[in-house]
Structure prediction request, 323 residues.
Amino acid sequence: MADSLIVAFGEMLIDFVPDTSGVSLAESTGFLKAPGGAPANVACAITKLGGKAAFVGKVGDDEFGHMLINILKKNGVNTDGVCVDTHARTALAFVTLRKDGEREFMFYRNPSADMLLKDSELNMGLIKQAKIFHYGSISLISEPCKSAHMAAMKAAKDAGILLSYDPNVRLPLWPSPDAAREGIKSIWNEADFIKVSDDEVQFLTQGDSDKEDVVLSLWHDNLKLLVVTDGEKGCRYFTKKFKGKVTGFSVKAVDTTGAGDAFVGSFLLSMAKDMSIFEDEAKLKEALSFANACGAICTTQKGAIPALPAESDALELIKSKAK
Prediction:
């Protein structure tokens, strides 16, 4: 099943990243334009590792939108599910990189093309070919995109496709923190696989993400696997039968943008190749270690998509760190 299709649904946009780290947007003198949007990053992460992926979403009929479609194509991502909106612009985000490589966002979306995807524009034929259907929560923020998201998710579920959810909390895009928590949790129980960061656990539960009972308050019985990413420390995993943690790789981080997407893309590819990883703890740990390596490599270069690793890069990092 090496050619199993993974379909990623949601937003694709342009990130403007300061050419100097550790300065505010106001102090920045120049910006690098970097293609972004978590679901699109995930699709590119999969193809970069030799997998098969499609992206479903909408961009504006502008230079940036056409540039994004070309980037997907260049990266070998199927674009049959990408629509173009003649009236709205492609979304933009200005990203501030703090000295530690962490980031802050300022978004231009009022409304942007990705928010205007209608359920009638969904390429259902493509979605139903997937082995895994992956999505975030930004597509839940406003209509008509929310209805399109729900329709795509239902079609995938009805077709017996595995649902993968990475909420990717971006607070500035929601009306309020409570609206974000409510929106993100509104589809929580649909997913077969959920990946959350330690910060997101803290935000969603308003508890301490280091505590296992806090993490497990996010568990639901339809879940096959819950993974919490802990940055360079690695990740924790929880299934019905077992739980544990997998150590990460410490590298010199320049830009953490896209690291979570590299992790998710890598892991979804392992999952698509062999669904038995939900039951086989040794296989699961191996796949998560590989995903940790992919996430780590992604932080060593600016921008998300250009920094996504090939399989050989990840294997090399794992080998170099093996005691």
